[in-house]
């Protein structure tokens, strides 16, 4: 018989947490802190985040205190009643959903992706070689051609107008014609 060391739950890292908060040892669940990773921090809503009376527009103190008490109490008890009705079915649904996602990932998607990577591994090498041999030199040549292009900002007021261009062209034609006659 082989000697197999038996590790305790604490040695495996499954032991109870060392905080002073109540811990359910059966499921290793911290009952006091139900959002240890803070994934629902955005759902914390307090009375002062919803209602605020500006200075000079105060209701009676007893109304303000009663509103606070009723808001917090109705929010708490309404959530508790809804969660008592729907939490178990939602937990079952989410458990089944994530089980299906994990099952699909383990038994379908990962093997399929691995098979395709083996199947197309040779084609990937051929395409990579083609790109390195044929496309990269062409891209380098085109990049060198366009690397000499420079762009400058020119004010529109300093550009000649069409009228100025035609007047300059007419003068050049006249000078050329006159020089031809002189010669």
Notes on the structure:
This protein is mainly α and 183 residues long. Helices cover 62% and strands 2% of the residues. It contains five helices and two strands. The protein has helices at residues 9-12, 47-50, 61-119, 121-146, 162-182, and strands at 23-24, 29-30. It has a two-stranded antiparallel sheet.
Compose a concise summary of this entry.
The chain has 183 residues and is mostly helical. The protein has 5 helices and 2 strands, in the order H-E-E-H-H-H-H.
Helix content: 55-70%
CA-atom Rg in angstroms: 39 Å
Secondary structure tally, helices? 5
Total number of beta strands: 2
Poorly predicted parts: 9-17
Q: Output the structural class.
A: mainly alpha
Strand order of the largest sheet: 1-2
Q: Overall mean pLDDT score? A: 80
Strand content: under 5%
Distance between the termini: 121 Å
Describe the sheet with the most strands. Answer: 2 strands, antiparallel
Instruction: Name the helix and strand elements from N-terminus to C-terminus, one letter apiece.
Output: HEEHHHH
Instruction: Describe the global form.
Output: flat
Pick out its properties:
183 residues; mainly alpha; 2 strands
Set down the secondary structure blueprint.
Blueprint: H1 9-12, E1 23-24, E2 29-30, H2 47-50, H3 61-119, H4 121-146, H5 162-182
Antiparallel strand pairs: 1-2
């Amino acid at each position: 018989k082989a000697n197999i060391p038996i590790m305790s739950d604490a040695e495996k890292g499954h032991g109870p947490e060392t905080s002073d908060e109540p811990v359910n040892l059966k499921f290793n669940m911290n009952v006091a802190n139900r959002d240890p990773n803070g994934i629902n921090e955005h759902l914390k809503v307090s009375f002062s985040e919803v209602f605020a009376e500006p200075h000079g527009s105060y209701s009676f103190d007893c109304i303000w205190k009663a509103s606070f008490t009723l808001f917090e109490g109705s929010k708490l008890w309404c959530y508790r009643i809804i969660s008592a009705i729907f939490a178990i079915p939602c937990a079952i649904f989410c458990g089944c959903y994530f089980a299906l996602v994990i099952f699909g990932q383990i038994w379908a998607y990962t093997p399929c992706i691995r098979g395709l990577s083996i199947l197309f591994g040779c084609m990937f090498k051929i395409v990579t070689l083609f790109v390195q041999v044929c496309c990269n030199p062409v891209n380098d040549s085109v990049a060198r051609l366009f690397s000499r292009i420079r762009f400058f900002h020119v004010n529109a007021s300093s550009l000649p107008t069409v009228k100025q261009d035609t007047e300059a062209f007419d003068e050049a034609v006249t000078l050329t014609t006159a020089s031809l006659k002189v010669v």
